[in-house]
Amino acid sequence: MCLLARLFNGFANSTRLSILLxxxxxxxxxxxxxxxxxxxxxxxxxxxLRCLSGCGYxxxxxxxxxxxYSVSDERILTILSLGEELLHDNRDCLEDCDTIK
Length: 101
Prior knowledge:
CATH class: Mainly Alpha
CATH topology: Arc Repressor Mutant, subunit A
Shape: globular
Strand content: 5-15%
Distance between the termini: 18 Å
Number of helices: 5
C-alpha cells in the first residue's frame, strides 16, 4: 500500500475518525472520557488510540496513572475540515457510490 493510502487509512475507520473529531473539538481528553463519549469498550478505544499515536495523529501526555490524548498536528484539523467541505459538496454522489463502502 502506498504511503498516501496509509495516511488516509488512518481516517477511514469510524472509531478513529470519531476520536480525532472529539479531540479537535474538545482538546485534550483522557481515555475514560473518550470511552464514555463514544460508548465503546475501553480496549477498542485504546487500540485505536495506539494506532493513531503510532501514525503520529495524536500525542499522549502521562500524568501519574492517567494518559491524556490530543491531536499532535494542526494539519489534522485542516484535513478533517477539507473532508467536511468535500462531503458537503459531494454528498449525493457519495451516497450513490457503490464502489466505496
